[in-house]
Write a structure and sequence with these properties.
alpha+beta; 10-stranded mixed sheet; 12 helices
Length: 393
């Protein structure tokens, strides 16, 4: 199928690689269903991992299914090997290919592995280049305005990641900064209220006795994972005449200041030093297309993967494969109709609105198949996709 897509003009120059997972209701399966960090917050359920590579035209070119307890960075080498093999079999020169992926796949081994095969556009975690976050915004240059009318700014430099010097662009989006700041402060306020309530209950001598370990456990249950470094605390011993230990907590200002400095910013690095900053930024931000594919695979009305109800690994792989094949047909159809500017869901709705009728005239017995009245978009889709050939008697 990939070979046919290439023959039709869909040869990829840039590939976007990402991973996702789906939970299932399997209690006892084979090797694929495993407990892990589920992206739908169903960590108590078994899940299956999938890696997906799509082209800049948003057409899938490779997918692999993995055990649900593997981390993105551990899956990445196998995905890269499978992707390289696929491209080689399709007679596509990997040296001219650019691979785009996010910071969850970062490691020195992975970065070196990619660079030995193709070019790279990737992002770094904020704690891997903290000094870049404190560059004054007046040093940033306007790069472009995105489809949401938000201005994207960039600061370009060279920086070492994983032992290699890369061309690096720190991107800044003011709208994202405001959104992230608001989300952070709302979450922080909720956490502080819960901690103050815990502190108040510990000061009271009413209720059951509590030891230090139980307080530490409750404190950690209150703090979300991404706030663990922001909140610091101290749990005292149980003093004479008291049933409970004391609790003090405070904000680590250095860590919080770093959080504020990073809001709205993305650190992107590449070995393509001749690319201008706008192209680097747009290429990395285009990785949303693979995320759109994951949304499509979660759409209950189109080609949903999860929840997976199969038990054997073979059936799970077959189920995911068929869903990916369905998505390829949707994406190819969307590519053919791309000048209409329709989303896949809208495209499907327009096609569903094209109705056929069997008509028999009063003067004879002959029955003809006819198309019911169509609107302008439906008529253009009917012509472009040559749907009339399916009406031949």
């Amino acid at each position: 199928m990939c070979k046919i897509l290439i023959e039709k003009g869909l040869t990829p120059q840039i590939l976007f690689l990402d991973e996702t997972n789906w939970f299932n209701y399997i209690k006892k399966g084979e090797e694929l269903p495993q407990n892990g960090n589920n992206k739908q917050y169903r960590n108590h359920m078994k899940q299956v991992y999938m890696g997906l590579a799509v082209s800049e035209d948003n057409v899938p070119f490779m997918h692999e299914v993995y055990e649900g307890n593997k981390h993105d960075s551990k899956i990445f080498p196998d995905l890269l090997d499978a992707l390289t093999e696929r491209l080689t079999n399709l007679k596509i020169t990997t040296e001219d290919m650019t691979l785009v992926f996010d910071k969850g796949n970062n490691s020195q081994v992975n970065i070196e592995d990619v660079l030995s095969k193709m070019h790279i556009v990737a992002s770094a975690k904020h704690n891997q280049a903290e000094d870049l976050l404190n560059i004054p915004l007046e040093n940033y240059k306007h790069l472009y305005t995105n489809p949401q009318s938000n201005k994207i700014y960039g600061y370009r430099t060279k920086y070492d990641f994983f032992g290699t010097e890369f061309t690096t662009v720190v991107l800044y989006n003011k709208a994202s900064c405001k959104k992230q700041r608001k989300s952070y402060e709302n979450s922080k306020a909720k956490i502080v209220l819960k901690l103050e309530d815990l502190e108040r209950r510990l000061k009271s001598n009413r209720g059951n006795e509590r030891d230090r370990n139980s307080v530490v456990r409750e404190f950690n249950d209150i703090i979300r994972k991404d706030f663990r470094s922001v909140f610091e605390y101290e749990v005292g011993e149980v003093t004479k005449g008291m049933k409970k230990p004391t609790l003090k907590f405070w904000i680590n200002e250095n860590v919080e200041n770093l959080c504020y400095a990073g809001f709205g910013k993305t650190i992107v690095f590449t070995d393509l030093k001749n690319w201008h900053s706008e192209k680097i930024a747009k290429t990395y931000n285009q990785k949303y297309i693979v995320e759109d594919d994951f949304k499509l695979l979660n759409d209950v009305l189109l080609v949903p993967v999860g929840p997976i109800n199969h038990h054997t690994d073979f059936n799970i792989r077959a189920h995911v494969f068929l869903c990916i094949i369905g998505m390829i047909f949707y994406r190819y159809m969307a590519w053919k109709c791309k000048h209409f500017g329709l989303s896949i869901r809208r495209l499907v709705e327009e096609l569903e609105g094209i109705r056929l009728a069997l008509v028999q005239k009063k003067s004879g017995r002959k029955v003809e198949m006819m198309v019911e009245e169509m609107d302008v978009i439906q008529a253009r889709l009917f012509s472009l996709l040559d749907l009339g050939k399916f009406m031949q008697n």
